[in-house]
Design goal:
Length: 305
């Protein structure tokens, strides 16, 4: 980072504008940031523009963090539960199995099923783990390299219960916040839509925004173009329509973003509250089921004695 700043200082000292210096480092400064800085330089209000960009980045990153929490919290807990269950099947159950063989009696159905699962786990756990890692890696590579795979994956996420609703609202909020920031900064609407498309964080909505941009470029109003995609909520479209008619599109887009960011917050809180008891029950069934099945023969032996 120090070398990057020194390079930018050298560029600016040699006569380049700040935005041009930023533009030379696309890996560190995205197009939205560069365009806003450029607009601030042209308007003679670079300090105000940088403050606006900082506020925008804070809101967008906060929204990203909330969505990640909704996606990763249940996944991480379930992964830990499955890992503990596999550990029991591979390491603990075989010890009990050797003890049960000395009984010389028929095992209860639940215990026998657990023993059979343990044998499968011991034989194939490494293969299953390798296949899982390979599948995750290939899926990640496919999403990064193939727009079609990424589109299908994002479309699948949007159809999931609760999670899909969070993804919908998050995409609308990010689109609205980005477009409001660019439009209020003097960036032309068509160019702002081009930037907002990549900021949605979802390929389905990115495609919808690109379609909206094409329609706006031909002279259609923004709210009408949004409605034609059949992606944006009716409330968002109506608020944009009011903003266009009142000549306060940026303010209305910010209100849309505020509303859907709050909706994402509420949905994430609701998901967390809903998932906690469900996860506890599932983990209890997984781990508790294995433990109980191992003690059933001992209980039966005690009853017989």
């Amino acid at each position: 980072m120090v070398a990057l700043i020194q390079q930018m200082m050298s560029d600016v000292s040699s006569g380049s504008s700040f935005s041009d210096a930023l533009r030379q480092h696309p890996k560190h400064f995205d197009r939205l940031f560069v365009n806003l800085v450029d607009a601030g330089e042209q308007a003679g209000a670079l300090d105000q523009m940088l403050d606006r960009v900082a506020t925008y980045k804070e809101k967008v990153e906060s929204l990203k963090a909330r969505v990640k929490k909704a996606l990763w919290y249940p996944t991480a807990v379930m992964a830990i539960g499955i890992a503990v269950t596999m550990l029991l099947l591979v390491k603990v159950v075989p010890e009990f199995e050797s003890m049960f063989q000395s009984f010389g009696a028929e095992l209860p159905a639940l215990t026998q099923m657990t023993v059979n699962l343990s044998k499968l786990a011991q034989q194939y756990w490494l293969t299953a783990f390798g296949a899982l890692v390979a599948a995750i890696f290939l899926l990640k590579q496919g999403i990064q390299r193939s727009p079609n795979i990424a589109y299908r994956m994002h479309a699948l996420l949007l159809r999931l219960p609760i999670i899909g609703d969070i993804m919908h609202k998050s995409a609308v909020a990010r689109f609205s916040r980005t477009l409001a920031t660019t439009f209020s900064s003097g960036v032309p609407l068509v160019e702002g839509l081009d930037t907002a498309a990549g900021a949605t964080g979802n390929k389905v909505y990115e495609h919808a925004v690109v379609q909206t941009r094409q329609d706006v470029a031909t002279g259609q109003q923004l709210h009408f173009a949004m409605r034609m995609t059949n992606r944006f909520p009716a409330l968002a479209v109506q608020m944009v329509s009011i903003g266009e008619e009142a000549g306060s599109l940026d303010a209305m887009l910010n209100r849309v973003a505020d509303y859907y960011e709050e909706e994402v917050d509420n949905k994430v809180d609701a998901l967390t509250s809903l998932m906690e008891p469900v996860i506890i029950v599932v983990l209890g069934l997984l781990v508790g089921g294995v433990v109980v099945s191992m003690y059933l023969p001992i209980f039966n032996l005690g009853s017989a004695l």
